[in-house]
UniProtKB/TrEMBL annotation:
Gene3D superfamilies: LmbE-like. Pfam families: PIG-L. The lineage of its organism: Bacteria, Bacillati, Actinomycetota, Actinomycetes, Micrococcales. Coiled coil: none annotated. The keyword Zinc applies. Keywords: Zinc. The keyword Ribosomal protein does not apply. Signal peptide: none annotated. This is PIG-L family deacetylase. It comes from Georgenia halophila.
Length: 237
């Protein structure tokens, strides 16, 4: 398994919900910011439908605050929310347009997003938002460099990212995150209210440590004690 390319300066991580990035990708983010790289986040929704018993009007600002706190732990200061409806993302022109606009604004060499496959494994269905967001993100990487698809974005200069990396259970490339595991756990732990409701019986830090431990297990063919895996797509040389 090859190492993810390192010859870039800016990455944009695109996710559907607050907490999506923290289930593994944040370990790679911490590694990159340690190297002096500029990493930014764009969230399609504010995760307002994600906490049982808490109305969306109260949940949205709470989850946005948790995401900003979480991002700061791994060295990310710029977090943007696009305001699409949680649980109802549609893989179509509107989402692609907004993501393409974000890519043009932030001008990343590397775009990173989450797993968009139908399942996580046998009997484990992936969420509709994840499926829609991941596919729309890959399309938006191409859209951001095309002057004709979304002419209403003429006020934003065209941008061609070099790569897109998708966090997936079947990776082609990996990042050594051995030195970043503790911060990745702390970053997920920052989603305090969300995790408390998700699993009231298990302390939040224990939940986070378990999740990060699982996703950063050593990758076959990659020499690192702890790693995060990605499928890499190349858009231009």
């Amino acid at each position: 398994m090859e190492q993810l390319p390192q010859d870039w300066e800016r990455a944009l991580v695109i996710a559907a919900h607050p907490d999506d990035i923290e289930y593994g990708i944040a370990a790679a983010v911490a590694t990159w910011t340690d190297q002096g790289k500029d990493v930014r986040y764009v969230l399609a929704t504010s995760g307002e439908a994600g906490i049982a018993g808490l109305p969306p009007t109260e949940s949205a600002p709470l989850r946005e605050d948790e995401e900003r706190a979480s991002a700061s732990i791994v060295g990310v200061s710029e977090v943007e929310f696009l305001g699409h409806p949680d649980g109802r993302l549609i893989e179509g022109p509107e989402l692609r347009r907004d993501l393409a606009a974000a890519i043009r604004r932030h001008r990343p060499e590397l775009v990173v997003t989450g797993h968009y496959g139908e399942t996580w494994g046998p009997g484990m269905l992936n969420s509709a938002d994840h499926r829609a967001l991941g596919r729309a993100t890959l399309d938006a990487v191409a859209d951001a460099g095309n002057e004709w698809i979304f002419p209403e974005l003429v006020h934003l200069d065209l941008w061609n990212a070099r790569w897109a990396a998708v966090a997936t259970p079947t990776p082609t490339h990996a990042v050594d995150v051995t030195a970043a595991v503790d911060r990745a756990v702390a970053s997920l732990t920052a989603h305090q209210r969300y995790l408390e409701v998700l699993d009231p019986a298990t302390p939040v830090e224990e939940q986070a440590a378990r999740q990060i431990g699982r996703v950063t297990e050593p990758k076959p063919g990659f020499d690192a004690e702890r790693a995060v895996g990605f499928e890499l797509f190349t858009f231009r040389g």
